[in-house]
Automatic annotation (TrEMBL):
Top-rank lineage group of the source organism: Bacteria
Native source species: Sulfurifustis variabilis
Organism taxonomic ancestry: Bacteria, Pseudomonadati, Pseudomonadota, Gammaproteobacteria, Acidiferrobacterales
Transmembrane segments: 16-37, 63-88, 109-128, 140-160
Listed name of the protein: DUF2254 domain-containing protein
Keywords from the named record: Membrane, Transmembrane, Transmembrane helix
Amino acid sequence: MKTQLSKVLERLRASYWFVPSVLVVLAIALSYATVWIDRTWPVDAEGRRYWLYGGQAEGAREVLGTVATAMMTIASLTFSITIVALTLAAQQFGSRLLYNFMRDRANQFVLGIFIATFLYAILVLRMVQGGESDAFVPQLSVTVALVLTLLSVGALIYFIHHTAESIQADNVIEAVRRDLLDCAHALLPDGADGPRDAEWSEAESLWQRLREDSAAVAARGSGFLQAVDTQSLESLAAGKQAVFRLLKRPGDFVMTGCELLRVSPAALVDDAFAARLNRDFILGSRRTLIQDIELPFQQLVEIALRALSPGINDPHTAIRCIDRLGDMLGEVLRRGEPPVAARDTDGAIRLIFERVTFASILGTAFDEIRQQASPHPAVVARLLDTLRVLIEMAPTEAQRQAIALQARLAHLEAAEKAGTEAERALLEKRMRAIRALLAQGEGAERTVSATHADG
């Protein structure tokens, strides 16, 4: 249920209609409330406050009509600016990053304020009455319309500034980093104890014993796996005394009819049970940040690859992406790998997930950049610097060796394409520092092993 709610909230956040719709509803309620106050407690000339509108009915109509016209014009201008900004962002950063711009609450609130002010002015305008006997000028309501207009002017100024800021490469990269931190906090519990080798061995050993008595459950739809309701699956497996082996992880593309998971014991699987299991796998037309830890890495990789393409040729942006990718990988090293199994209250394994290792995330982050950056010595030099820092942070030898492999491949590919001796020397200097660090770590491990042996 929680996962389904997260999916709904994510859809609402990425929509351009939800926040404006809420503000429109509030504007309607506000218009009726202020008009009711004006009718219930009318203010005469002697009791009127200086800040209340003091004109006649004709003046009130002109003010409200002007406000409504101006707000509709500004809303159209805002929409046009948004389209231009999205077009520029798609060209520079890739169309898949438009999803991040669509999730920007500031743009949604600004558009909503303009539409809400327009609707408020129209609703109050229809209540203004002239004449001698039944004249009614909603002074408070007109005053509120003027206040909303001032608020809209401030929102317009903020919107122009925010739009100019949001399409700058450094800010786009920083926004992706924040998304990764949110994912890490949700998917990588703080204090996770590094790699999941022991847990994975236990889960794999259990599944090898159960594999013969298992049945496959096929997907009944297609699309990207956006989230898995693990709580619902775990509860169902515990109630049936079963074990589910998930074969897809969030971010994978699922084809209709492919195996989603296997269930042991096999006797549980029938058409109704398969349909029930399918409901816990949320599919969609695009990847989302709900449970997909690798998506922010791939977004930064796409920015870096576009920056390195001949059409853009912006190695500085690629270097900024490498810096942030290194920082994000450091967060994974600090927190540890995602869980590979889920247990019931008695400690028995009920769900076995596809394993996401640090090495696989490292490959997602740097494989394509390493290949594309080989003709750019400065970019490869920064990549090697980043890998050296990650080796210093890595808590296990397996992680250090995975990082070292990336460094060796980057150095080899770039050295072959280096045009001058100076470029080759630059790369060799970075690589020597990595070799020295690895040798130092191996020496420390031998010392520790010898000490244990003597003991």
